[in-house]
TrEMBL record, chains A, B:
InterPro entries: Cyt_c-like_dom (IPR009056), Cyt_c-like_dom_sf (IPR036909), Cytochrome_c_Peroxidase/MauG (IPR051395), Di-haem_cyt_c_peroxidsae (IPR004852), MauG/Cytc_peroxidase (IPR026259). It comes from the Bacteria. Binds 2 heme groups. Its cofactor is heme. It is found in: Periplasm. Residues 39-147, 191-305 form the Cytochrome c domain. Residues 1-23 form the signal peptide. One of its GO terms (cellular component) is periplasmic space. Binds 2 heme groups per subunit. This is Cytochrome c peroxidase. Residues 311-330 are annotated as: Disordered. PANTHER family: CYTOCHROME C PEROXIDASE-RELATED.
Length: 330, 330
């Protein structure tokens, strides 16, 4: 009895420590998501992978938010219809539901609103919502899935983007080494990684990169102390608010899985984490990190790679004789 | 005891019927594949999905042999680097191991030899074998996988294409309704489908489309009785053998999963199975199928759709600071 009591007290002690560590940190662990509506998620997954939502029949959501590659395309700016060079680096879809808004400039309020954008963007999927619906509507299996999920065979852009968003909401990455440390596993980080994290906090990085997604919670000017030199023309929030003070103010990106989501910054101009950390120090904190400091922060950042979503490739229902044909070369 | 005996005899009867049906048919069921080397298959799957084997970092094997869409891209001819319009319709990778050779003109003797082609083709992935190896070699996890599978960290194009081929060999589609019928389940086909199959045999289609893949076993001239009208410049076997008699002689394509692998013919000019069947009747058999005949053959062809490979999307190991950067727009 005495022994059991000791064990119990030890257990309580461990739990208290765990809660303590997490509660005092600017970053919180990512929680696994249990989908409320698995059938809607499955439908959304099909749509996410279906290139028939593009004019060419070649580009799907997964083309630029590739779930084999951290939910990005790992190129500076995306390739759109007819090899159009996109204006900005594709943000990761992983943990994107934690962002205060979507796109670098926050012009879409949520994942559902975001999902409609690329389909109709001439430089991305180059389709129209009307034609995308016409394609889906011509495929009996899709009509049946929509009926099952939304109670009606009548497909519209609202149900399409609702389903895609429901799938995207499941794309979270719990279980990183850093989260294990947050949850009380002291051995989950080594000395350098922990030093990096302490420096990340003490130097001010965590002022913007915080919350469960280690970012995504606010907008911030890129180039607070020193302007960022780029040929990229993106204006950031100014394009949304029209205010001159919002020039080059962007949504602070998540640092979750940052090891996988290279290249970095809105222009994708920086290929390595070392250069990204060093640049951020100078531009945002007016601080020159030495080589060892950069290395420790990079080591910390690499502990933010979580368990990637386990995706079974969907089998898409075939087009029918009534389905509008893709127009890749027109 | 007596009752058991009757049951046993009935069982034997069923088995005998099953063997009997299959043995007399020009088409044989597809058998499931149990990979000899699952780790090599897993490595091959990663390579199959890895767009870093292309110059742009955007095009993978799966881009044109999309396993969500019957192992094809469902467009007349494929989109290559810089949106180059490919010269020919992408054949399905499903059951491709049963082909006597690869590509429409059979210029690659097997899947391994095929796999190296698109990587270095300027109109497809537009890379070089050397650069592809350099990319893989810069990624420690890839080196470790290759060591595990091939016993050496030294990656070369031979090991890359061996692994891709090992993965592709698993991409078979057993379990179609037609195979169930072949295996003795009389109820697996309805009356029209069975009529279609009988007509498929009696009219001569099965003369070329036979074997487990319902094709892929021989070369045949396209346009035996009437020349096929197309703007496509592919010469077929002539490009390989140099013989004038091989002009427009192509590998007979598999009809497995034909419902999923539209559009049809080497130029991808025909969008519907009805038109494809009707055209083949005229050109190859000098026969005009009436509407009902076409419908029955199409109904039969749709019973050839098998269970699609169950693919878990691979998580690709990230590039490192040493990895050559993709060059999408150069």
């Amino acid at each position: 009895m005495m022994r059991m009591l000791v064990v119990s007290l030890l257990s309580i002690g461990a739990i208290v420590t765990s809660v303590h560590v997490s509660a005092n940190e600017p970053i919180q662990p990512i929680k696994a998501v249990k989908p409320e509506n698995p059938k809607m998620v499955e439908l959304g997954k099909m749509l996410f992978f279906d290139p028939r939502l593009s004019k060419s029949g070649f580009i799907s959501c997964n083309s630029c938010h590739n779930l084999s590659m951290g939910g990005t395309d790992n190129i500076p700016s995306s390739i759109g219809h007819a090899w159009y060079q996109g204006p900005i680096n594709a943000p990761t879809v992983l943990n994107a539901n934690m962002n205060l808004a979507q796109f670098w400039d926050g012009r879409a309020k949520d994942l559902k609103e975001q999902a409609g954008g690329p389909i109709a963007n001439p430089g991305e999927m180059a389709f129209t919502h009307e034609l995308a619906i016409e394609v889906l509507d011509s495929i009996p299996q899709y009509r049946a899935y929509f009926k099952q999920v939304f109670g009606s065979e009548k497909i519209n852009i609202d149900s399409v983007t609702t389903a895609i968003a429901a799938f995207e909401e499941t794309l979270v990455t719990p279980g990183s080494r850093f989260d294990k440390w947050l949850e009380g596993d002291q051995a989950a980080l080594n000395k350098i990684e922990l030093e990096g994290y302490k420096l990340f906090k003490s130097s001010g990085c965590a002022g913007c990169h915080n919350g469960p997604a280690v970012g995504g919670t606010l907008y911030q000017k890129f180039g607070i102390h020193t302007p960022y030199k780029t040929e990229n023309k993106a204006e950031g929030r100014k394009a949304v608010t029209g205010k001159e003070t919002d020039l080059h103010v962007f949504k602070v990106p998540t640092l979750r899985n940052i090891e996988l989501t290279y290249p970095y910054f809105h222009d994708g101009a920086v290929a390595t984490l070392e250069e990204a950390v060093s640049t951020m120090g100078k531009l945002q904190l007016d601080r020159t990190f030495n080589e060892q400091e950069v290395a420790s922060i990079v080591a910390f950042l690499k502990t933010l790679t979580g368990k990637q979503p386990n995706i079974r490739l969907p089998i898409l229902p075939p087009s029918t004789n009534k389905t509008p044909r893709p127009q890749p070369f027109e």
